[in-house]
Amino acid sequence: MAYSAFTGNNLDPSYQSQGAAFQPPDEPAFPPGREPGCDDEPVEPVAPCFMLPEFSGCTENELSSAKLHPKCIVENIYYADVGALFAPGGVGKTTVKIYESICIALGRDLWGYPVINPGKTIIMTAEDSKDLILARMREIMNSMKLTSLERGIVMSHIMIIDVSGDIQRLAESDAANNLVITSLADNIVERYKNDHIAQFIFDPAIRFGPGERYINDGEDMIIIACRRIVRGLNCMVQIIHHTGKQNARSGSLDQYSGRGGSAFSDGCRMVTVLSNNGEMKNPPEGFELLPGDSGFVMARPKLSYCKAQPNIWIRRHGWEFEYFIEEVNNSNDILSRNVERIAAFLKDELHHGRKYTKNTLESAGMKTLKLTRQDLRAALGVLEVCGRLIEKDFPNDERQGGRKRFLFICTSPN
Q: Packing angle between helix 331-351 and helix 358-367, nearest 10 degrees?
């Protein structure tokens, strides 16, 4: 009788209670010659996958030609290595990457940083359709008021591969439940090795891995596959990934903001985080959201090939992007700026007939001025000590309950 595997459904009922490990007597658990201890057919040794080289040092030429960083795509932002972009759903991750790809294609400065090596971008999307991404690209191009020549460059330098209705993985589990690299990365290298690619984007990460049940092992396999593309195309590979729920609610900007494990951040050489919540406090001068605007902070918590860079505050109106570089100030500078902002706010509100107590200012300050309660109280304390802030009595017809005195900014200190 041919050897076959057994399941709980084809076992004799008398053996069901004993578990699937027991086999009916008329069907052997092992094929002939393969019983435990049988030496009739010796098992062939498995050939090693990697041949270790003999020990050798380095040469003076190797030492002198070694580089501190790979090819730079955008100065102090992007290099030919693996990177990740973390952001909550709805912030506009894909749209931001389309805008960046246009700038890289044209060689235009990106967020104030020069594009060192312009080139082509491939976006492999397993979420948004090609048609939707092209529609967004068209609107961004229109908002940038590109010339006919520039439009032609962009259209010839950005490619969309739509796998949203398919399953294409960089890594997966095999029949034995072991994680393996698929042929996708090698196929990408073979197909585009002569096309001068500057960046390859996978959107989103979850659709290209073996599934989140593997967490760090699965993330690490994606990184390994992406490194094959980096090595084969000498380009940046960026993985777009969602933040975890708690990190999204708190507005976390650290390198471990991505959903799942820490392997993505540990394996990537560049980590970018977008947030429109939580830590959007103390915006740089000029950053104000008008009706119809949206905004978010772009942090670069991990940059392996350059020094730390300040956060970028991005204001979006329709399909237009405007950026503001966050000033790196000490605590005294921040306090002084908060003092002036509160003084200006109280003056302007009083001019429009709106008066505040300390309690109502705390509520308004946290929402409108985007200050923490601690920062607001510290600034109020400075204003009081300097004599610029006093309390005045409400008019009799404006008193409500215990609300009797309001905050008033003096034209000159008392």
A: 110
Global pTM?
Answer: 0.70
Please answer whether residues 180 and 174 qualify as being in contact, where contact means their C-beta atoms are separated by less than 8 angstroms.
yes
Instruction: Name the band, by pLDDT with cuts 50, 70 and 90, for residue 401.
Output: confident
Which of 248, 261, 255, 258 lies closest to 210 in space, CA to CA? 261
| Residues with Cβ within 8 Å of residue 252, at least 6 apart in sequence | 243, 246, 273, 275, 278, 279
Beta strand pairing status for 320-325 and 389-393? unpaired
Q: State both tokens at 385.
A: 């000590």
Answer yes or no: is pLDDT of 16 > 50: no
Which pLDDT tens digit goes with each residue over 92-135?
999 999 999 999 999 999 999 999 999 999 999 999 999 999 99
Taking the CA atoms of 253, 255, 257 and 258 in sequence, report the sign of the dihedral they define.
positive
Angle at 44 between CA 43 and CA 50, to 5 degrees: 135
The secondary structure of residue 311, as a DSSP letter, is: -
Asked if residues 181 and 170 have their Cβ atoms less than 8 Å apart, the reply is: yes
* CA separation for the pair 334, 351 (Å, rounded): 26
Amino acid at the residue 121: T
Tokens 């971008």 belong to residue? 121
What pLDDT, on the 0 to 100 scale, is given for residue 19?
43
Helix (H) or strand (E) holding 233: helix 216-233
In tens, the pLDDT along 246-280 reads 777 777 788 888 888 898 889 999 999 998 875 56
Bridge partners (DSSP) of residue 281 are: none
